[in-house]
Design goal:
It is a single chain. This protein is α/β, with parallel strands linked by helices and about 400 residues long. Helix content is about 35%, strand content about 15%. It contains 15 helices and ten strands.
C-alpha cells in the first residue's frame, strides 16, 4: 500500500497493516482457513546448528529481506538508509514488503522451515510472539555477537532480557511500539484509563478497540487484576467475560486495524485503543488527537529481525543489523517510521535530522514511561487455540 500524507509525513502505519483488511483474527484469515498452522507440521522442531547452509556472503554480496509494508524510509528520499547501506558495504539488497500478518507469513514458510528446507530469504521481521515461537521451534539461526556489536552496545535496556531470547542471541528489534489510548480532545474530556473506554456512558457507541488479541486482552487482564505477562485460565475467563459485557451492551463500536485513525480525526470516534506510531502521524495534521498512557499501563511490542535456517547470506544480514544499530542510521529511520527507536543514542542524533522529534516520548520514551509497560505471556499450543477462538467469538473475528 502507498504511504504518505499531505503533510509529507508517513500516513499508513505498519502496525495498522497487521489486521487492516477486515478485522478478522490472524490478519484476515480465520483459524480454520489457516488449518491450524502452528500445529500441522510433522517433526517441526529443528536444530539450527545442523539445519544451516554454507554462508556465501563473502563471495555473494547480496541480501534478501522480508519486512512489513511501509517500514523503511523510501528510496525516493535523498540519502535514504538503504542506499547508504549498499554504498557502505557493497551489498545489494532485495527488500520485499511481503509480511502483512504474522500468521499469514507463517503459513507461507512453515512447511519449508518445519522440514529443514530453505525459504529463499536471509532475514525476516516478525512480532515478539511469533519470533518467540520460531526461535522455540529451532527455525532461526544464532547471530554472531562479534558481528553485531552495536546491538549489544546500543539496544534499549527496556528491550533486553526477553524471556524467549534473554541474550538477544537470535533477534534484534527493528522497531518497537506502544499500545495505549487515543482520544479527540476537541470532542471529549480527558480519558485516563482503559476502564473508561469500557464503562463511561458518555462514550457509548463511539469507542473502538484493536483487533489484535494480545494488545486488547492485555488491558482486559489488567482490569480484572491479572498480569498479562503471567495469568491463569480463570483470569483469562474473567477478562474475556468483562469484554463480552461491553460488546453486548453496545459500548464498543468495533474492533479495528488502523482504520480507527480516520474516524478519530473526523470526530466520529471519541476515544479508542491505539498504536503509538499511528497517533504521531495523526498529530502532524490534527493536534487535538492525544495519546495517553492509561492507568493500566502500556503494552509494548517489537518487530524483530531474524535470520531463518538455511539462509545463505547470514554475515550480510548481520552487517545490515549492525548498520541499523548505529545511532546515526537508527535516527534517520526513526524520523520516517515514527515508532519507538530501539537504539540508544539515536535521540541525540535526531537533533541533526528533525529537532521536532527529539522530545517526542512516543519515539524516545523516558524511563518513567517505559516503567509502565508490559508484554503478553507466551502461549502454549492449547492456550493458543482456546484463547484465539474465544477472542474471535467476542470480537467478531
Amino acid at each position: 500500500m502507498p504511504r504518505g500524507s499531505a503533510s509529507g509525513r508517513p500516513g499508513l502505519s505498519r502496525r495498522g497493516l497487521l489486521k487492516g483488511a477486515g478485522g478478522l483474527a490472524f490478519g484476515g484469515l480465520s483459524i480454520a482457513a489457516l488449518d491450524l498452522p502452528f500445529f500441522d507440521v510433522p517433526g517441526a522442531q529443528q536444530d539450527p546448528l545442523t539445519c544451516r547452509a554454507r554462508d556465501v556472503s563473502a563471495s555473494e554480496r547480496e541480501l534478501v529481506i522480508s519486512n512489513w509494508p511501509g517500514y523503511i524510509d523510501p528510496r525516493r528520499q535523498k540519502g535514504n538508509t538503504r542506499d547508504e547501506f549498499e554504498a557502505q558495504t557493497g551489498i545489494t539488497v532485495k527488500y520485499t514488503d511481503d509480511i502483512n500478518a504474522n500468521t499469514e507469513f507463517y503459513a507461507k514458510v512453515k512447511n519449508q522451515l518445519g522440514t529443514c528446507q530453505p525459504i529463499g530469504r536471509d532475514m525476516i521481521v516478525l512480532t515478539d510472539w511469533m519470533a518467540a515461537r520460531m526461535i522455540g521451534l529451532g527455525w532461526i539461526q544464532p547471530l554472531d555477537p562479534a558481528k553485531v556489536p552495536n546491538v549489544h552496545q546500543n539496544l534499549l535496556q527496556a528491550l533486553r532480557g526477553r524471556a524467549w531470547d534473554k541474550t538477544a542471541k537470535y533477534h534484534a528489534p527493528w522497531q518497537t511500539g506502544f499500545t495505549g489510548i487515543a482520544y479527540n480532545a476537541a470532542k471529549t474530556g480527558e480519558i485516563k484509563s482503559f476502564g473508561e473506554l469500557l464503562d463511561n456512558p458518555d462514550l457509548k457507541g463511539r469507542v473502538t478497540l484493536l483487533n489484535e488479541m494480545r494488545d486488547t486482552m492485555g488491558f482486559l487482564l489488567k482490569l480484572v487484576g491479572a498480569e498479562p505477562q503471567n495469568f491463569t485460565a480463570d483470569q483469562w475467563a474473567n477478562a474475556i467475560d468483562r469484554l463480552r459485557g461491553s460488546v453486548s451492551n453496545g459500548q464498543i463500536r468495533a474492533f479495528t486495524g488502523n482504520d480507527y485513525t480516520q474516524d478519530l480525526a473526523a470526530g466520529n470516534l471519541l476515544a479508542c485503543e491505539a498504536w503509538s506510531g499511528d497517533v504521531i502521524q495523526l498529530q502532524f495534521d490534527n493536534p487535538d488527537i492525544k495519546f495517553v498512557t492509561p492507568e493500566e499501563g502500556l503494552a509494548i511490542w517489537s518487530d524483530n529481525m531474524m535470520v531463518p535456517n538455511l539462509a545463505t547470506h547470514e554475515a550480510n544480514a548481520e552487517e545490515w543489523i549492525n548498520f541499523y544499530y548505529d545511532p546515526v542510521n537508527a535516527a534517520k529511520l526513526a524520523a520516517w517510521v515514527n515508532y519507538i527507536c530501539p537504539v540508544e543514542g539515536a535521540q541525540q542524533e535526531m537533533e541533526k535530522i528533525d529537532a521536532s522529534l527529539v522530545d517526542n516520548k512516543l519515539i524516545f520514551p523516558d524511563e518513567d514511561m517505559l516503567s509502565k509497560t508490559w508484554d503478553f505471556m507466551a502461549l502454549d499450543d492449547r492456550q493458543q487455540i482456546q484463547y484465539e477462538g474465544e477472542w474471535s467469538d467476542v470480537s467478531g473475528g
